């Protein structure tokens, strides 16, 4: 058994703790004792109150660990990653921090540690897929679309947020970067909407979001790359109206001599409207499409995911598909399958077939299945 510390006991952090405690000694940490209380009574699983911004306390908690997993909010991700590296601990990160983390590569090498970032369902699995196939074929086009949605549609939004509404709103406001004809192109979020049909789901609406992240740097030789988010048709029209009316503006306005940020107000209101209740059925759907040539033969490879809330384990699909990608990556590092030192996005791990095969098999063992279809070849 290895000793593992998980930073953050939110929905995904708790799923990771339960998964890893089946084989290892796990300590789950959070600043909120109520989140930790939900992990009470699980064998091999200890709990500790921790403010990750207290660097001394963080160092003490992870001192004896063999690896650390970070599931803290994105705004805490960079400083947490930095401190874990300084404490010479390997790290798997799903904080989806907004900063460019390649700047920490030298620090990680100096401290002799392995850090794998963006280890969720997306970013995460599309990166693993891109890295694996990039070693075996000339990729001309990489597209993926992904969404987490409630099984029961309720008007007006027909949506529930598996994470903070503020983070969801950022998807609707941050300009989307993608590759087009070998050049980085920037377009507004929620642009280029299209309807796409999925088995077991029906028709969903896809729109541009800024999800390619590290792929724009590591795979910039691929001339065309795009990521889109999926929602039920009609949702994005409502959100677009809120955005146009100024509800997502961060500049404070004065109401009755009180300053208030429209974004903060909207996030507070939507927290209740979009709150995913415990046990509420939901699903994750994703489609990854790769087109290119291998040994002169045209290939089009499609990975499809459909995953639902686990009624037996009472774990949401988004927590399963995100969290188990991270725990699989941690197990991979502990098993010595990936030993390079530095900071790596998943595509630089997935280029090794033994690592790619491991993560896909790990997910299958947890009933998370990617259906692979070869359309040409």
Model description:
The protein has a seven-stranded parallel β-sheet, sandwiched between helices. A seven-stranded mixed β-sheet has the order 10-11-12-7-15-16-18, with helices on one face. Strands 8-9 form a two-stranded antiparallel ribbon. It is built from 13 helices and 18 strands. 33% of the residues lie in helices and 29% in strands. The model has no long low-confidence stretch (mean pLDDT 95).
Shape: globular
**Total domain modules:** 2
The helical percent reads: 25-40%
Top-tier CATH class of the largest domain: Alpha Beta
Q: Kindly report the CATH topology of the largest domain.
A: Dihydrodipicolinate Reductase, domain 2
Main sheet: strands, sense, barrel: 7 strands, parallel
Poorly predicted regions = none
Summed over residues and divided by their number, the pLDDT gives a mean of 95
The fraction of residues in strands falls at 25-35%
Strand order of the largest sheet: 3-2-1-4-5-6-17
Main structural class: alpha/beta
Number of helices: 13
Distance between the termini: 44 Å
| Number of E-type strands | 18
Rg, nearest Å = 20 Å
* CATH level-four homologous superfamily name of the largest domain: Dihydrodipicolinate Reductase, domain 2
Examine the secondary-structure arrangement and name the CATH architecture of the largest domain.
Answer: 2-Layer Sandwich
């Amino acid at each position: 058994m290895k000793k593992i510390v998980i930073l953050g006991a939110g929905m995904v952090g708790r799923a990771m703790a339960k998964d890893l405690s089946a084989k290892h000694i796990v300590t789950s940490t959070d600043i909120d004792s109520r989140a930790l209380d939900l992990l009470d009574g699980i064998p091999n699983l200890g709990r500790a109150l921790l403010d990750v911004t207290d660097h001394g306390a963080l160092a003490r908690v992870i001192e004896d660990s063999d690896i650390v997993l970070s599931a803290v909010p994105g705004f805490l991700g960079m400083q947490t990653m930095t401190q874990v590296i300084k404490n010479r601990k390997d790290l798997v990160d799903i904080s989806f921090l907004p900063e460019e983390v390649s700047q920490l590569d030298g620090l990680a090498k100096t401290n002799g540690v392995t850090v794998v970032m963006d280890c969720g369902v997306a970013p995460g699995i599309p990166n693993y897929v891109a890295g694996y196939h990039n070693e075996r074929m000339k990729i001309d086009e990489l597209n993926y679309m992904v969404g987490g949605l409630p099984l029961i549609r309720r008007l007006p939004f027909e949506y529930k947020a598996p994470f903070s509404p503020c983070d969801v709103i950022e998807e609707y406001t941050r300009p989307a970067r993608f590759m087009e004809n070998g050049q980085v192109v920037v377009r507004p979020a929620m642009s280029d909407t299209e309807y796409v049909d999925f088995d077991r789901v029906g028709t969903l609406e896809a729109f541009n979001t800024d999800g390619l992240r590290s792929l724009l740097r590591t795979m910039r030789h691929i001339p065309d790359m795009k990521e889109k988010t999926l929602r039920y048709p009609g949702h994005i029209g409502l959100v677009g109206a809120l955005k146009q009316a100024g509800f997502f503006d961060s500049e404070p306005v004065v109401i009755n001599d009180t300053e208030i940020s429209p974004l903060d107000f909207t996030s507070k209101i939507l927290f209740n409207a979009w709150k995913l209740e415990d046990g509420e059925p939901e699903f994750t759907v994703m489609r990854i499409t790769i087109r290119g040539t291998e040994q002169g033969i045209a290939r089009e490879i499609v990975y499809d995911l459909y995953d639902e809330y686990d009624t037996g384990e009472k774990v949401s699909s988004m927590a399963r598909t995100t969290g188990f990608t991270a725990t699989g990556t941690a197990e991979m590092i502990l098993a010595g399958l990936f030993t390079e030192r530095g900071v790596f996005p998943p595509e630089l791990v997935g280029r090794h077939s033994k690592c790619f095969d491991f993560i896909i098999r790990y997910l299958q063992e947890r009933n998370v299945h990617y259906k692979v279809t070869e359309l040409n070849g």
